[in-house]
Write a structure and sequence with these properties.
mainly alpha, two-stranded antiparallel ribbon, 10 helices, 4 strands
Amino acid sequence: MTTDILQLRRGALAAAMLLAAGTAGTAAAQPAPGAPAPGAPAPGAPAPRTPSDALREANDAAAAGDWARVSALVDPLLAPLLDPRFDPRLAPSPSRGALPPADLAEAHRLSGIAAFYQQRRNAAEAHFLAYLKIDLDGRLDPALYPPEVVGFFDEVRTKHQAELRARRPKARRYWLLNLIPPGGQIQNREIGKAWVIGSLLGAFVVGNVTTYLVLRSWCTQVSGDRGSSVTCDEGTDHARTASTLRVLNIVSGVGLIATYFFGAYDGAAGYRRQTPARPYLAGVAGGGMVGIAGAF
């Protein structure tokens, strides 16, 4: 009987201890009145970092050569774009969570450099290509970055040159503009040639029209049995000057016609040349590459 009483007392004591422990845990789990909820920012804590702040700190980390820090700052900005479920049509503006084009290009540039120095060449190439798609004329300044990363960047540009060229917007061109020199030269971005042709056309027009009007006021056209001719005031300076003006009128007329046809032909020839062939020299990691790019 005594043993049974002792066992009952021990069971009651154990139950009381378990009940007290559960009550204390529940009280500890509940926040105190006025305390912030778990996970909420504490009062006076700094606001979440903006993309501009992250890019600024990433540039400082890049200047210090802390590439792990660069990746930690920039990769979260690009994480939504790397998610296969991401639809850019749902976030076309900063108000919907997308980075502005300038910040997006800078983020890809920094991520590419960081990936290169972390020996992640495929990721570096992907980031550099994304950067070049946004800024088709983008480059890495050799005065700021070592030759190996600049050479790798130029290698990516050369490798995807056709794709990047296809993304470059093409200016609207009109074939009929070639028939109005120097309009064809201006359309073909040959500004120096446009100035020369335009100046010649203007000079010939002024000379031809001026001499024609003077000769018309000084001379009279007469006709007879033997045909028609032009007579000027005899015994005056007009008669002696008219012969010179006739020569100038003919020369300016011929020059005007010749210049016009040359300008039209040159404009049409330049119109057919979309992109002239040009040599390029691109640095490549561990070497160099020389070639010719153009469209005919």
